[in-house]
Amino acid sequence: MKRSVFAKFVIPFIQWYVLMILTAIAVDFFLHRFQLLSLCIYFGYAGTALVVLSFIYSLRKRKIIESGSPKKLLLVHEYFSWIGSVFILVHAGIHFNAILPWLAIVMLLINVASGLVGKFLLKKARETLKEKKVVMIEAGVSQADADKKLFWDAVTVDLMKKWRVVHIPISLLFGILVLLHIITTLIFY
Description:
- It is a single chain.
- The chain has one domain.
- It has helices at 5-33, 40-54, 56-61, 70-92, 99-138, 143-149, 151-160, 163-188.
- It is an all-alpha fold.
């Protein structure tokens, strides 16, 4: 039998997430090592711009704009969001002097995690679960036995189906926190 849903989809999700954080740490280390900390503010600008540009996909999906391939725009959304998140993490650095930016970073990390759930897990997990069930039934396993053997995979898929319910409000909250951060920075600095 093929690998479990967890091994096939959850592990790559974790790898991309950890890669994002490690990339941000490596870039931050490089900037500290070569005394280039003044560039961090520009990483915030670039990261924010990439994340904002990534929303072209959402506008296309909701038919607010008519041009562009949804499939290609989804890829742009995924990669711009990921790269923008790395830039924003570099911009944030390790500073404990203000709560608002930290709340925004927490929301960013949660938002990226929920987006990766949609990218890596949900669609492919559903397909894999369905394929496994078909293979079992074709091999002569009864419907009930197949359901019992695939119980934990089915539970995993059911939990992942809730991802948009989390992703959209978190994106909104992240956006609000970023706007508040920008406004307060402009007012107080």
